Amino acid sequence: MINAVDHVQLAAPPGSEDRLRAYYVAVLGMTEIPKPPVLAARGGCWFQVGAVQLHIGFEADFRPARKAHPGLRVTGIEQYGARLAAHGARVEWDENLPGHRRFYSYDPVGNRLEFLEPVALRTSGPDG
Length: 128
Description:
The protein is an alpha/beta fold. 20% of the residues lie in helices and 31% in strands.
């Protein structure tokens, strides 16, 4: 039985570590975590906040996916979106998921990330 997501793996072009670190640490507020030595030899970066981990590995023929993305749940989504925008990150709000506020943003190599926060749905009372 599956009971949790351990991590999400994204790809990036070789040599993009500094740009990725600047985005995932300074903009998103994650912490870089060390890769095991046997995996560190391959390059890439791992980041974590709370129980959420994003692993970024290198691909020589990297092309960012157009639709694939991790969905990251946040609290205070309006403030978080403003934080990203203040750091120069593109923030695209999307109102098409009922019960959620969400936006998309892109890391420095073009990986799409979804940020979402559940909101209470209004239900009509007996008077409409």
